[in-house]
Design brief:
This protein is an alpha/beta fold. It folds into 2 domains: about 15-150, Oxidized Rhodanese, domain 1 (3-Layer(aba) Sandwich), CATH 3.40.250.10; about 155-265, Rhodanese-like domain (Oxidized Rhodanese, domain 1). The protein has helices spanning about 20-25, 40-45, 60, 80-90, 105-115, 160-165, 175-180, 215-220, 240-250, 260-265, and strands at about 15, 30, 55, 95-100, 120-125, 170, 195, 230-235, 255-260. Strands 1-5-4-2-3 form a 5-stranded parallel beta sheet. Strand 4 (about 95-100), helix 5 (about 105-115) and strand 5 form a beta-alpha-beta unit. The longest helix has 11 residues, at about 80-90. It is globular and about 55 Å long. Residues about 1-5 have low confidence and may be disordered. Keywords: Repeat, Transferase. This is Sulfurtransferase. Pfam families: Rhodanese. One of its GO terms (molecular function) is thiosulfate-cyanide sulfurtransferase activity.
Length: about 290
């Protein structure tokens, strides 16, 4: 069987519930817990994970090396990504269901990357809390698999210039970071001028499950978004932005573009920032049509 390509559409929904696992017992479970405060996602996995779930490390599998020029979590090279997943026992013919303990905040990155290249992948709605049975502890391994490297779909990616000029630019970070009131990790506070703030946790209910698609659609439409193809989404480093990208798809609004470098890349430049609750004014474009 030929591996899927980025131009193909995945078949399964972006978000699935617990029943999906019963109906698809061969699906590969991926635990993608990760913590901004430095706690170990791997230790959390060892302490208890869904039966058969492998641990996928955000920093080493789902991102390339961090640099000021590329950001804290640049996209991994396709070859490195494929190699790492194959070593974990994930094949490009597998159906992958990923979860974490934060409503998909980090697991969404794996799901979005896989769907980007045509591999069937979805978030488990409710994450580890959706599992009602006993958890496994300790190491879980799978036999090595075959995963063919293929390039990221360029149509789903935005550059720093796109993020500075696109009609709809969405910042998925918490409001305090967007407004510039605090910045725990990146070089300066604020947001990209012209960006609106749609924090990703607002996609979830109190049980960390996604809001119904019609409610999600209304949330985005209230912000002026009726077609995701015209939208660029960013966050701190291109991770939680994937949650909004999947939420837009779950809401039936289509597929938006990710700005992978996100604020961590932008804030390392001399480009202007905006602060406060308003999107802010974009600077005039240079003669070449690019805002600086």
């Amino acid at each position: 069987m030929e591996p899927p390509t980025g131009s193909e559409r995945t078949v399964i929904p972006a978000v699935v519930d617990r029943r999906f696992l019963d109906e698809h017992p061969d699906a590969v479970l991926a635990d993608v817990r990760w913590y901004l405060d430095g706690r170990s996602g791997r230790d959390a996995w060892l302490g208890g994970h869904l039966p058969g779930a492998v641990f996928v490390d955000l920093n080493t599998v789902l991102a390339g090396p961090a640099t000021p020029e590329a950001g804290r979590h640049p996209l991994p090279e396709p070859e490195a990504f494929a190699e790492a997943l194959a070593a974990l026992g994930i094949a490009d013919s597998d159906t992958v269901v990923a979860y974490d303990d934060a409503g998909g905040a980090s697991a969404g990155r794996l799901v979005w990357l896989l769907r980007n290249i045509g591999v069937d992948a979805a978030l488990l709605d409710g994450g580890i809390g959706a599992w009602e049975g006993p958890l496994d502890t300790g190491e879980t391994t799978r036999p090595a698999a075959a995963f063919a490297a293929r390039p990221w779909d360029a149509a789903t990616l935005a550059t720093i210039d796109d993020a500075a000029t696109a009609f709809h630019v969405v910042d998925a970070r918490a409001g305090a970071r967007y407004r510039g009131e605090t910045e725990p990790v990146d070089p300066r506070a604020g947001h990209i001028p012209g960006a609106i703030n749609i924090p990703f946790p607002g996609n979830l209910d109190a049980d960390q499950r996604f809001l119904p698609p019609d409610v999600l659609r209304a949330r985005f439409e209230e912000a002026g978004i009726i077609d995701a193809s015209a939208v660029v989404v960013y966050c701190g480093s291109g991770v939680t932005a994937c949650h909004n990208l999947l939420a837009l798809e779950h809401a039936g609004l289509g597929r938006a573009r990710l700005y992978p470098g996100s604020w961590s890349q932008y804030a390392a430049t001399t480009r202007p920032e905006a602060t406060g609750a308003a999107p802010g004014e974009r600077p005039p474009a240079d003669p070449d049509g690019v805002t600086r």
